[in-house]
Amino acid sequence: xxxxxxxxxxxxxxxxxxxxxxxxxxxxxxxxxxxxxxxxxxxxxxxxxxxxxxxxxxxxxxxxxxxxxxxxxxxxxxxxxxxxxxxxxxxxxxxxxxxxxxxxxxxxxxxxxxxxxxxxxxxxxxxxxxxxxxxxxxxxxxxxxxxxxxxxxxxxxxxxxxxxxxxxxxxxxxxxxxxxxxxxxxxxxxxxxxxxxxxxxxxxxxxxxxxxxxxxxxxxxxxxxxxxxxxxxxxxxxxxxxxxxxxxxxxxxxxxxxxxxxxxxxxxxxxxxxxxxxxxxxxxxxxxxxxxxxxxxxxxxxxxxxxxxxxxxxxxxxxxxxxx
Length: 324
Known about the structure:
Blueprint: H1 2-26, E1 30-36, H2 46-57, E2 66-73, H3 79-99, E3 107-115, E4 133-139, E5 184-187, E6 204-207, H4 224-236, E7 241-247, H5 268-282, E8 290-294, H6 308-314, E9 316-323
Parallel strand pairs: 2-3, 5-6, 7-8
Antiparallel strand pairs: 1-4, 2-4, 6-9, 7-9
């Protein structure tokens, strides 16, 4: 009998320990993203800026988490020089995140560690490229999600900041960023929103049946069938909140947005999203349930739109589910 009691006590203790460990593990979830730099350069390259853009856009980095930024350098240069170089790299990453909407209060650490030490010393004059980097460590545990993504029209995010988790059913060509975009559903026709109950917050619906004249934010009449579906979906799901996101094609990558002929300002994708927002508000949808953004050509499905098929993929309006 005594042995049985001891066995029962042992197994209960083991089960309790397992549950405690599992709970502790489930509460700690971190991701580390590495941003690389050229030799002796503290500034972000265009490719690395784009990589960070995609991380923010895909909700890998967002406000409401704990973010640690740690800069490094390789062995080339003096210890003092590498320490300062690695710190400047970390500071530039922090500045870029804040510029793109990340709450600076969520960046808990920003340091430069200098040279990364290796067991075997290298004598290469080129150094170690993998050591010239900044690690962005995002701690998602026990944090309330606060979306922070900003549009390509800089701070013109009317209706608040959005939640993003993006790409397409097609493969996105992103150069050498090393990042893939996330789940997007391309739906058209009468069944565009029929599976809304099965979709999760962060998923995206590409509205292919919404049309605008070239260089204009005026909605074409043939778009109203699709917009009516969107309106009916919002009406039938009173807790549903969405972000309306405009994208354009056929502009240079360093241009923030295409020019809107009505305003003569580079804000075409922004104004197209706003036009759909205004349509839904006029139909009676509460503004608090809607956000709108313009991303220009910041997140193309096809990087180089060399023909009309590519342009059609990039020229789109998307609806992102924020909450249900």
